[in-house]
Amino acid sequence: MRHSPRTYWSEARAGLRDIAPAAIAAIPIGLLFGAVAVAKGMSPAEVGLMSLLVFAGGAQFAAIETWIHPAPILTLAFATFLINARHILMGASLSPKLALSRSQEFVALFFLTDETWALSERRALDRPVTGAYWGVMGVVLFFNWTITTFLGAVLGSFLGDPARLGADFAFTALFIGLIAGFGRGRVMLVAVAVSAAVAALVYRYIGAPWHVASGALAGIAAAYLAAGEKSQSREKSQS
């Protein structure tokens, strides 16, 4: 689908506007990751290369938590798979809403994150998600994360503990805002509540990274059941 230059720049500006809060919130998290990674024995160059190739904050933090020498490759790979398995569902949900060819999607979805997915799903409620909109969001967040993690590694211990300033809560607050933007329908509320409760319980009694997959599967099941009940009640009211 071709767009006029005016439409292209309008979509690009919209992407930049929407991703800016997420990019700002990612700065202290990126700096923190870089500092922690260096403390675990990685060099700044290795930290930057990891962010450049992996580009997955949750998986990178999980890897750093279990990082030893020599690195437990199988354990790291399994934990990364569990944490990033949600991307399978996110990609399947988002793919029909992207105004891109199949080959373009394979490249574009490298930049898939929780933030770009949530913002794109919200935008798709009104209009298709164009390549300009998605591309600006993905590239901005990608370079923001890569640069801040590298800077965090260079600065290292000079940063101190971001938790003292509440910076460790930045992503949590961001996700709360993203979820709120989806509306307050019953199906959405049920899915979010069940997903959060199951993830919290699994994290408390089993630990990471199992809470991510458990919360996602529980939320999907809850949404499916709630949507089915809603459909049945609608059919009864019409009969």
TrEMBL record:
<keyword id="KW-1003">Cell membrane</keyword>
<feature type="transmembrane region" description="Helical">
    <location>
        <begin position="20"/>
        <end position="39"/>
    </location>
</feature>
<feature type="transmembrane region" description="Helical">
    <location>
        <begin position="187"/>
        <end position="206"/>
    </location>
</feature>
<feature type="transmembrane region" description="Helical">
    <location>
        <begin position="212"/>
        <end position="228"/>
    </location>
</feature>
<keyword id="KW-0812">Transmembrane</keyword>
<dbReference type="InterPro" id="IPR011606">
    <property type="entry name" value="Brnchd-chn_aa_trnsp_permease"/>
</dbReference>
<dbReference type="GO" id="GO:1903785">
    <property type="term" value="P:L-valine transmembrane transport"/>
</dbReference>
<feature type="transmembrane region" description="Helical">
    <location>
        <begin position="132"/>
        <end position="159"/>
    </location>
</feature>
<feature type="transmembrane region" description="Helical">
    <location>
        <begin position="165"/>
        <end position="182"/>
    </location>
</feature>
<dbReference type="GO" id="GO:0005886">
    <property type="term" value="C:plasma membrane"/>
</dbReference>
<comment type="similarity">
    <text>Belongs to the AzlC family.</text>
</comment>
<dbReference type="Pfam" id="PF03591">
    <property type="entry name" value="AzlC"/>
</dbReference>
<keyword id="KW-1133">Transmembrane helix</keyword>
<keyword id="KW-0472">Membrane</keyword>
<feature type="transmembrane region" description="Helical">
    <location>
        <begin position="70"/>
        <end position="89"/>
    </location>
</feature>
<protein>
    <submittedName>
        <fullName>AzlC family ABC transporter permease</fullName>
    </submittedName>
</protein>
<keyword id="KW-0813">Transport</keyword>
